[in-house]
Amino acid sequence: MVQYTLTQSPEIILSVPGKDSQKARNKAMEQLMELMDEGKLPTELSNGFSPSEFIEVKEPEVTPSDDEDAITHAVQVLNNLATLKMKVQSSREEAMAIRTQIDKLFSDALVTEEELTDLKQGFKVLKTFAQSNVRYREARAQAEEARTILDRALKSGD
Question: CA-CA distance, 83 to 72, in Å (whole number)?
């Protein structure tokens, strides 16, 4: 969407779909003519007017403030914490079951080949759980600050 205005009447904004082009300017000219025909144009264009005289209205680019960046980062940190917590919770039970089987390796009791195979496959689950748990604990420490940032941002100005 492109918007145009007139030097003589900057309060008039003509919106046309698409990008700035001769075709878009011609469509804006049609809108301008309609306004003139309806008597809604506060300015007399006694010297004439051409599509090339339209001034393109551009929205100022808004750059986020440091506070907005901090809030965005805080939400990302908390989202990461939630994701890690889900991973840890979903694999905890299976990992703990595998952990108890490790004790069999340190006993003199016989272990079947099937139990050893299951244990070896379980090490992957145990490793994933342990790594996720470590990352979760680290993320939780970071999330404390993120929570404080959000709490400040959510406080009303009362």
Answer: 17
